[in-house]
Design brief:
It is a single chain. α2 packs antiparallel against α3. A 4-stranded antiparallel β-sheet has the order 1-2-3-4, with helices on both faces. The protein is elongated and about 80 Å long. It has 193 residues and is α+β, with helices and mostly antiparallel strands. β3 and β4 (125-130) form a beta hairpin. The longest helix has 28 residues, at 77-104. Helix content is 41%, strand content 26%. The two termini are 37 Å apart.
C-alpha cells in the first residue's frame, strides 16, 4: 500500500525532472532515525540551564530591591543580558525537531542525470547535483539496511579561511547499500556516454 504522503512527495519530485530525465531510485527518509541530531543537547541543555539561572538570579536581585543601587535603570542590564543567551539555548534545543520536521517533508532521488532532494513546506527547497560532480561516497548502514549515503560534491573556503568539504547526503533511507550500487552504476553509465 502506498501512503498518500508518499504519492504527494513523488508528484513533487516529478515536477523537478528535466526532459528525458528518468528516476532510477527515489525514497522518503525516516525522520525518527535521526537520533544523532540530539547530540547538540549535550551542549544546549547546560547552556540553557546556565542562561536561565544567570537571568533568574539577576532578575530576583533586581526585583527584591536589595543592594545600594536597587531601583536604578541600569540594574536591569544583567537580567536583560541573559535573554539572548536563553533564546540561543532554546533555538539549539529545538534544532533536532526542526531537522526531523524538514526530513519529514523531503524526498530523495537518483536520476539518470543527477541526485535530488526536494523539501516542501512553506517554501520549496530543491538541492540537485549532477552525476558528473559527485566524488567520494561513504555509507553508514544499520542492521536493518536503513542508513545514510554521503557524497562529496566539492569544497570551498569559509570565512575563516578553512577548507570545507561540500556533501550531498541521503539521510536515513531504506536499503542504502542498493542505493550506493545504483549510484555507482549511474555514474559509470553517464561517464561512458
Amino acid at each position: 500500500m502506498v501512503l498518500p504522503h508518499a504519492m504527494e512527495m513523488e508528484r513533487e519530485l516529478r515536477r523537478e525532472l528535466a526532459a528525458g530525465e528518468q528516476i532510477i531510485w527515489s525514497g522518503l527518509p525516516d525522520p525518527r532515525r535521526m537520533r544523532l541530531a540530539f547530540v547538540i543537547w549535550l551542549f544546549a541543555i547546560p547552556w540553557t540551564l546556565f542562561s536561565l539561572a544567570w537571568t533568574g538570579i539577576a532578575l530576583s536581585a533586581v526585583l527584591s530591591g536589595k543592594g545600594e543601587n536597587a531601583g536604578l535603570w541600569w540594574t536591569w542590564i544583567f537580567p536583560l543580558w541573559g535573554t539572548p543567551f536563553i533564546a540561543v539555548g532554546l533555538y539549539m534545543l529545538s534544532m533536532p525537531f526542526r531537522i526531523r520536521a524538514a526530513l519529514g517533508r523531503s524526498i530523495y532521488a537518483l536520476t539518470s542525470q543527477r541526485v535530488l532532494q526536494v523539501e516542501t513546506g512553506k517554501t520549496r527547497k530543491v538541492t540537485a547535483v549532477a552525476l558528473s560532480q559527485l566524488g567520494a561516497v561513504s555509507r553508514t548502514e544499520g542492521k536493518d539496511g536503513w542508513g545514510t549515503l554521503s557524497i562529496v560534491t566539492g569544497s570551498h573556503v569559509d570565512s575563516d579561511g578553512d577548507r570545507v568539504t561540500d556533501k550531498f547526503e541521503f539521510h536515513q533511507v531504506p536499503d542504502v547499500a542498493r542505493l550506493e550500487r545504483l549510484l555507482t552504476d549511474a555514474q559509470a553509465y553517464a561517464s561512458s556516454r
